[in-house]
């Protein structure tokens, strides 16, 4: 049945190239959940433990037996990928009248729809306080919120960095925040005081990374709108410190590498076309099969409610 269904779909290589090549610079989901391919739609991903932090007796006397460690039982996360499918209709008259490649444009629209959904899902997973141990999260309130003039953003982040270090032996190398939080921080008195003698005099994301002592500050700018057209920030008013293993150039990510999270996928951006009833409407469709998985919550520290 699966092969029959595959044969019924006519995959379009030109539209696939458009879909795969498409990227919206406002989207940051891949910063937290980099892509890692899975050959099947279901499988097991290893959950990383602390065996490599344990001290073992490693000295060996002459002709003595080798030392043997007793590793903890390996635990796994069961993962079942979800299919995400979105199509855009095009009447044959629209195609004839359009002054541009309407088919390619619709392929981008379908791709954007799934990409926006993936961005929304990434924020919902990363900023869900229930996913973190008590030691790896804080909810700000009152004078500690960054909208308060006397608040201490650098101190809050330092506490978070130390919390991650104690659980992973790694200091976070990335700080993710929403656009509203960034706007507040770049005008915060503590930030401005620290850079007042710098040449720029403006708290850019790069300068903020230096102030917070991380490799990179990532700003989530993306919005979604409801049916009434009201806009909402996808990344809200929270911040997340994470340690993510730096990507290896030109090498496919593997979900067997310790990391904060992955977007495990089988298909990403597969495009095809199909005719509607009557043959006068053609649908351009994007299909992606993936699941975002938080495999190392200990490598994250969530700071919620940064703004009053």
List the helices and strands and how they pair.
Layout: H1 2-8, E1 10-11, H2 13-21, H3 29-32, E2 35-37, E3 42-47, E4 75-80, E5 82-91, H4 92-97, H5 102-126, E6 137-139, H6 153-168, E7 174-178, H7 179-185, H8 189-195, H9 205-212, E8 216-220, E9 223-225, E10 231-233, E11 239-242, E12 261-275, E13 281-294, E14 300-304
Parallel strand pairs: 2-12, 6-14, 7-8
Antiparallel strand pairs: 1-12, 3-4, 5-13, 7-11, 9-10, 11-14, 12-13
Helix pairs in contact: 2-5
Number of strands: 14
Query: Tally the helices: what do you get?
Result: 9
Please give the share of residues in helix.
25-40%
Uncertain regions spanning at least 5 consecutive residues: 1-8
pLDDT average, as an integer? 86
Shape: flat
The class by helix and strand makeup works out as alpha+beta
- Radius of gyration, taken over Cα atoms and rounded to an integer in Å: 24 Å
Percent strand? 25-35%
How do the SSEs run, as a string of H and E?
HEHHEEEEHHEHEHHHEEEEEEE
The end-to-end span amounts to 54 Å
The biggest sheet, with number of strands, parallel, antiparallel or mixed sense and barrel status, is: 5 strands, mixed
Q: What report would you give on this structure?
A:
It is a single chain. The strands form four sheets. Strands 1, 2, 5, 12 and 13 form a five-stranded mixed sheet that branches. The protein has a five-stranded mixed sheet with strand order 6-14-11-7-8. Helix 2 crosses helix 5. The N terminus is likely disordered. The chain is of the alpha+beta class and 308 residues long. Helix content is 29%, strand content 27%.
